[in-house]
Amino acid sequence: MVASTSELKTLFASLDGDADGRISAAELRAEFLKLALHCDAEEERTRGLKEAFGMYEMEEGCITPASLGRMLGRLRNGRGIGECRAMICRFDLDGDGVLSFDEFKIMMSA
């Protein structure tokens, strides 16, 4: 991806914390630390979501209406198969009737 001049100016301005027209080593270090902390937090979130996703008794590596129903039953929040299909349909982006991990991540972010 090639950034436009406008995008580069915006990026530069965001890094130039004291607005002196230069980016100091301290400003770069601060931005790097923010980025590193964000990456660590994102990795931790993904790990937690994978663990939650794995709690479902899955068929073919996806959450099916039946596996959703079983999990909800264990949580004492049972639903019928039709309700489970409707819940899955809301986040089933590819229309295959099941939730993949990527679709599950989107659902959990909603």
Automatic annotation (TrEMBL):
Keywords: Calcium, Metal-binding, Repeat. It comes from Lolium multiflorum. One of its GO terms (molecular function) is calcium ion binding. The keyword Metal-binding applies. This is EF-hand domain-containing protein. InterPro entries: EF-hand-dom_pair, EF_Hand_1_Ca_BS, EF_hand_dom, EF_hand_pair_protein_CML-like. Residues 3-38, 79-110 form the EF-hand domain. The lineage of its organism: Eukaryota, Viridiplantae, Streptophyta, Embryophyta, Tracheophyta. It comes from the Eukaryota. Gene3D superfamilies: EF-hand.
